[in-house]
Amino acid sequence: MERVEVWRGDHGDPVPLVGRPLPGIRDGDTPADEFRLPPSFEPWPGRTRLERVFVVLDLGVGLAEPCRRRRRTADGRTVPGVDGDLPAPATWYVDLLHVTLERDRIVLRDLYLDVLVPTDGRHQRPLDLDEFADGHLDPATAVDGMRRRHRFHERHLHTPRFPSLTRTDFPPRRLSALAALPAPLGPVVEVTD
C-alpha cells in the first residue's frame, strides 16, 4: 500500500477541485480517500462524519457507504440521507468518475451517472441520468463512461444475462483491505456545505 493525494470535483471543474488534496491510500488498482462532512450532517450511530470513498480505477467508479443519516438545512429542515428512514444503513453509493492518474496523485471528476446499490434486497436506483443526458460531456467521454458503467454492473452486480437474487462481487472483495484500515487515513479535510 502507498499514500496518494486524491483531488475530487465535477467534470469540467479546474484544478484544484475540492481546494486541496484528500489523503488517500492506494492498494494496487484501488485507492481509498476520506473527507469529513460539515456539522450540518448527522452521522449514523457509531459512525463519525468521516466518509471513506473507494475507487475501482480500471472501471472508474467510486463506492461509499454513506456515513450520514440526515442533514439539517440552513432553514432548519431535516432531510434524511440515503437509508435515513431505516434503522441502519444498507446502501452503497456508486459514482461514475473520470480518472486521471499521475505519479502519487489521482484526479477524480464526477461524470453524473450514479447508482444506489442496497445490500438488503431492495432494487438498485440509478441517479442523475438527466444530468448525463444534458450533454455536459463530450461524446467520447460519455461513451467511455457508459461502457465502464456497464462493465461495473457485469463484474460486480449481475454477471448472468437475467436478473439474479445474488450479486457477482458486491461490495467488491478488493475493497476489504482498505476498508479495514483505521480512520483517519491522513490529515482530515472537512468539506463545506
List the helices and strands and how they pair.
Elements: E1 2-10, E2 22-27, E3 30-36, E4 41-43, E5 50-56, E6 61-64, E7 68-72, E8 78-80, E9 91-101, E10 105-118, E11 125-127, H1 129-133, H2 139-157, H3 176-179
Parallel strand pairs: 1-10
Antiparallel strand pairs: 1-2, 2-3, 3-5, 4-7, 5-6, 6-9, 7-8, 9-10, 10-11
Pfam families: DUF402
Protein name: DUF402 domain-containing protein
Domain DUF402: 91-136
> Proportion of β residues?
35-45%
Secondary-structure element string: EEEEEEEEEEEHHH
Radius of gyration, taken over Cα atoms and rounded to an integer in Å:
17 Å
CATH class: Mainly Beta
**Proportion in helices:** 10-25%
Separation of the first and last Cα atoms: 32 Å
The CATH topology comes to FomD barrel-like fold
CATH A-level architecture: Beta Barrel
**Sheet with most strands:** 7 strands, mixed, barrel
The shape, in one word, is: globular
What is the number of beta strands? 11
Structural class: mainly beta
Uncertain ranges: none
- Domains (count): 1
3D architecture notes:
With 193 residues, the chain is mostly beta strands. It has one domain (2-179): FomD barrel-like fold (Beta Barrel). Helices cover 15% and strands 37% of the residues. It is built from three helices and eleven strands, in the order βββββββββββααα. Strand 10 (105-118) and strand 11 form a beta hairpin. The protein is globular, with a radius of gyration of 17 Å. The mean pLDDT is 88.
